[in-house]
UniProtKB/TrEMBL annotation, chain A:
Protein name per Swiss-Prot or TrEMBL: Carbohydrate ABC transporter permease
Species classification: Bacteria, Bacillati, Actinomycetota, Actinomycetes, Micrococcales
ABC transmembrane type-1 domain ranges (all copies): 93-282
The entry's keywords: Cell membrane, Membrane, Transmembrane, Transmembrane helix, Transport
Coiled-coil features, chain-numbered ranges: none
Organism of this sequence: Myceligenerans pegani
Domain of life: Bacteria
Automatic annotation (TrEMBL), chain B:
InterPro entries, alphabetized: ABC_transporter_permease, MetI-like, MetI-like_sf
Keywords: Cell membrane, Membrane, Transmembrane, Transmembrane helix, Transport
PROSITE patterns on file: ABC_TM1
Name recorded for this polypeptide: Sugar ABC transporter permease
Low complexity composition-biased segments: 1-22
Region feature Disordered, mapped onto this chain: 1-28
Superkingdom, natural source: Bacteria
Entries under CDD domains matching the protein: TM_PBP2 (cd06261)
Higher taxonomy: Bacteria, Bacillati, Actinomycetota, Actinomycetes, Micrococcales
Coiled coil: none
Cell location: Cell membrane
Domain ABC transmembrane type-1: 101-314
Pfam families cross-referenced by the UniProt entry: BPD_transp_1
Record membrane topology: Multi-pass membrane protein
């Protein structure tokens, strides 16, 4: 993805391989990259420290001199965490996984289906629907929190994972995102399939979805990450220890372990591992999705 | 960016809605769908969107016009009283609300400029070919992948007055090493802003970077041929090229900052005193802990109104230059004509 654009992209500050490539700009460029690498090291050091501290003893984690290598290396923080009945981390983990997974599936399915006619069909009311989607993209989510609490309460979903999975699946961003993709997709294959007698739904499932897989994967990842990390809504909607997701659970954990920094860091690591794994394998999709979201402006 | 760039050549510019007419052959099928077909596709989304976005957006207004205590059965209609109470700084709801709006304002005003400039610097430095570029991009983006809960729990530890590494390393380089980063002011704001910049810098940087790569190389070459300096190239090529994205990033960053909640909730718990209790904290606390939903709904509309006005100002600021340019063009054209 970047290689094509790299070739066409000149360095902004330095001269782009022109004849004036003298020692000074070259040295300046080297310094610039060195600065970037050093900065990057400082930048990630907090995350490394979180990981390192989760393997320390209680005493070492509370020591006044920071240590970068646990001495002794121990899993006692994780042991303590898994044994504590008030803070069921494994349940939180499972809750987060189920909620984020189902939410992402729901977002991708409903947003793709809704985006398709908005990109490809002419019908009355299309402008109204799309206008509402765009308008709601710009409305800050804060006005929805209080009334949605009432709606979720009426539906009997308070303190259940359904409250985390379903309401946030109404993704105006998802519809916008998928519509952009469909609009830019050449339509010949779909027309051919229609002329062959396939109906619209068959065309969508058999022709469009296979072509849209990268976009759907990107949207699924963004939805998963958003849901996995969501904090305010779960904190107020899930109020018993065993129904919480990881971020809401971390708040409980911090309340219960004010000075057990080894345990808190272990909890933070557990909440980070799945998204960090997803990010390291699929960062191209995630970064691409985010950078494309900025182009809606 | 590859999927969109690959098709950019033969696709029309994506507008707000598909063009009704025009010489565009592919993309729209010649066979008209049955009237129900589009609605069947839309139905699942519209069911969710209607129930959890459109309905609450309206229901919120209704709630805000009532004395709506969630724990009571009856919710008497009070008209605009919730709003009037908010406008009265001496009332029990107005005073703390504006205090929290002020906190949100302090946070937004301090974090937005940093979140506009620092990521741009990172993106400019990364907008070149060098070994490990993609890796570095991932590094700068990494904290954003983690949620606010993780980074807040982490930084509460790192910023601890007595055992936090931040004070230790500050002491090593000869700076004050006993700052109460989370329990004194202005240190608490410095901490919340710095942690937020660290956390979300990668998001804006990635958007900038994509936009920088869409600026045609020919423009830089032409500017260089004309003898433009680095600074001139930045002002005359890079910044104009970034303008649309800059507008999106500015509005988005303002909204994100004004919605700050988790950092204050977990790192400072709104303290010291109530100094870092943001508007969102106040709304959530009033509506979802004290269950005074009418008042909380009114607060959320006031906050939204302020945010929309701010966004309007940003749109105006970014559009104005266009208008000025158009006016200048018209003037030149008129001069040519006369």
């Amino acid at each position: 993805m970047t290689s094509i654009q790299d070739a066409a992209t000149p360095p902004v500050a330095g001269p782009g391989g022109a004849a004036d490539d003298t020692l000074r700009p070259a040295r300046r460029r080297a310094l610039r990259y060195l600065a970037l690498y050093l900065l990057a090291l400082v930048f990630v050091s907090p995350l490394l420290y979180m990981l390192v501290t989760s393997f320390k003893t209680r005493a070492e984690a509370a020591g006044t001199t920071p240590s970068w290598i646990p001495d002794p290396f121990t899993l006692q923080a994780y042991g303590h965490l898994l044994a504590a009945p008030d803070t069921p981390v494994l349940t939180w983990f499972a809750n987060s996984l189920i909620a984020a997974g189902l939410n992402a599936a729901l977002v991708v399915a409903t947003a793709s289906l809704a985006a398709y006619p908005l990109a490809r069909m002419e019908f009355r009311g299309k402008r109204v629907v799309f206008g509402l989607v765009i308008a709601m993209l710009m409305v800050p989510g804060v006005i929805l929190v209080i009334p949605n609490y009432l709606i979720v309460s009426e539906l009997g979903w308070l303190n259940s994972l359904t409250a985390i999975i379903v309401p946030t699946a109404a993704s105006a961003f998802g519809v916008f995102f998928m519509r952009q993709f469909f609009v830019n997709l050449p339509g010949e294959l779909e027309e051919a399939a229609l002329l062959d007698g396939a109906n619209r739904f068959q065309v969508f499932v058999q022709v469009v979805v296979p072509l849209a897989r990268p976009a759907m994967a990107t949207l699924a990842l963004l939805a998963f990450l958003t849901n996995w990390n969501d904090f305010l809504w779960p904190v107020y909607v899930l109020f018993s220890p065993e129904t919480r997701t990881l971020p809401a659970g971390l708040a409980t954990l911090q309340g219960a372990n004010q000075v057990r920094y080894d345990v808190l860091m272990a909890g933070a690591v557990i909440a980070s591992v799945p998204v960090m794994l997803l990010f390291s394998f699929l960062q191209r999709f995630i970064i691409e999705g985010v950078s494309r979201s900025g182009l809606k402006g | 960016m590859s999927p969109s760039t690959a098709h950019a050549v033969d696709a029309p510019a994506p507008g707000a809605s598909a063009p009704a007419t025009g010489g565009r052959r592919h993309g729209r099928s010649p066979i008209a769908p049955a009237p129900a077909t589009p609605w069947l596709f839309l139905a699942p989304f519209l069911a969710l969107f209607g129930t959890f976005v459109l309905l609450p957006a309206g229901l919120g207004v209704w709630i805000s016009l009532h004395d709506w205590d969630y724990t009571f059965v009856s919710h008497p209609f009070v008209g605009l009283r919730n709003y009037l109470d908010l406008l009265d700084p001496s009332s029990t709801s107005g005073g703390p609300f504006w205090e929290s709006m002020r906190a949100t304002g302090v946070f937004t005003a301090s974090s937005v400029p940093l979140l506009l400039v620092v990521p741009l610097l990172v993106a400019l430095m990364m907008n070149a070919r060098f070994p490990g570029r993609n890796f570095l991009r991932a590094v700068y983006f990494a904290p954003y992948v983690l949620g606010v809960a993780v980074i807040s729990v982490l930084w509460r530890y790192l910023l601890d007055t007595n055992i936090g590494p931040v004070n230790h390393y500050l002491g090593l380089v000869g700076l004050p090493d006993a700052t109460a980063w989370l329990t004194s002011q202005p240190a608490a704001w410095v901490s919340l802003v710095a942690v937020t910049v660290w956390w979300t810098l990668g998001f804006n940087a990635v958007i900038y970077l994509a936009a920088l790569q869409d600026i045609p190389a020919e423009l830089y070459e032409a500017a260089q041929v004309d003898g433009a300096s680095v600074a001139q190239r930045f002002w005359n090529v890079t910044l104009p090229g970034l303008r649309p994205v800059l507008m999106f990033v500015t509005v988005n960053t303002i909204i994100m900052s004004a919605n700050m909640f988790g950092q204050s909730y977990l790192m400072t718990e709104g303290g010291p005193g109530r100094s870092t209790r943001t508007a969102i904290m106040r709304i959530a606390d009033t509506g979802l802990s004290s269950f005074q939903m009418g008042s909380a709904a009114a607060m959320s509309y006031v906050l939204t109104l302020v945010l929309m006005l701010l966004s309007g100002v940003v749109f105006w600021l970014f559009r104005d230059r266009d208008a000025v340019r158009t006016r200048a063009n018209v003037r030149t054209r008129e001069k040519v004509r006369s």
